[in-house]
Amino acid sequence: MGRLVYGIMGVSLDGYVEDESGGFDWSTPSDEVHRIANEHVRTASGLLFGRRMYEVIDEFWTAAAERDDLPATEAEFARVYVETPRIVFSDSLETVPDGVRLVRSADARAEIERLRQEPGGHLEIGGPGLASSVVDLIDEFRIWLCPVVLGGGKPYWPAPPEQLDLRLAENRTCDGGVLYLRYERAAG
């Protein structure tokens, strides 16, 4: 069974993934952080997005994959990103480009459960709205804790889930003071 991983984004010290204006330039990854993210996406069997996160990420990285002036680490991420199957869960989008599959939001849980049964790597979920709707299915949380306090914005959890008991599986201090934290659900 494939593991469902909630990751792909930076989180401020006060728990936000976007600032109040919807920006996240405060979480621009260093080369070291990017290399770790590249490995995560390289080993994923699919990237799962809510509409908003998909629109922000997909537009940037599909365009980046066409460029030849990116630093090597970013160019690698762009290449791996467009090669990885992507699914967007949305009720408002009507079409998506090649390489992306559209699933209606009401079918998210059933589709994610079905995907978890397929062989392959983990499924990487991006976007707090989608993650909070399937929190009980998430096996692992990968947090890029950035040394910034935003004071408001889009929270990592739009509505706090019920208590989740987690076990720290990995931690690293990266360039720029970013902490990479990987938590797994605690047994039992």
Keywords:
single chain; nine-stranded mixed beta sheet; two-stranded antiparallel sheet; 5 helices; 11 strands; 28% strand
Structure summarized in a few sentences:
The chain has 188 residues and is an alpha/beta fold. 28% of the residues lie in helices and 28% in strands.
How are the secondary structure elements laid out?
Blueprint: E1 4-6, E2 10-12, E3 16-18, H1 31-42, E4 44-50, H2 51-64, H3 72-83, E5 86-89, E6 100-103, H4 108-116, E7 122-126, H5 128-133, E8 140-146, E9 154-155, E10 166-173, E11 179-185
Parallel strand pairs: 1-7, 1-8, 2-8, 4-5, 4-7, 5-6
Antiparallel strand pairs: 3-9, 8-11, 10-11
Characterise this structure.
- By secondary structure, the protein is α/β, with parallel strands linked by helices.
- It has a single domain, classed as Dihydrofolate Reductase, subunit A (3-Layer(aba) Sandwich), CATH 3.40.430.10.
- The protein has helices at residues 31-42, 51-64, 72-83, 108-116, 128-133; strands at 4-6, 10-12, 16-18, 44-50, 86-89, 100-103, 122-126, 140-146, 154-155, 166-173, 179-185.
- Strands 1, 2, 4, 5, 6, 7, 8, 10 and 11 form a nine-stranded mixed beta sheet that branches. It has a two-stranded antiparallel ribbon with strand order 3-9.
- It is 28% helix and 28% strand.
- Helix 1 (31-42) runs parallel beside helix 3 (72-83) and helix 2 crosses helix 3 (72-83).
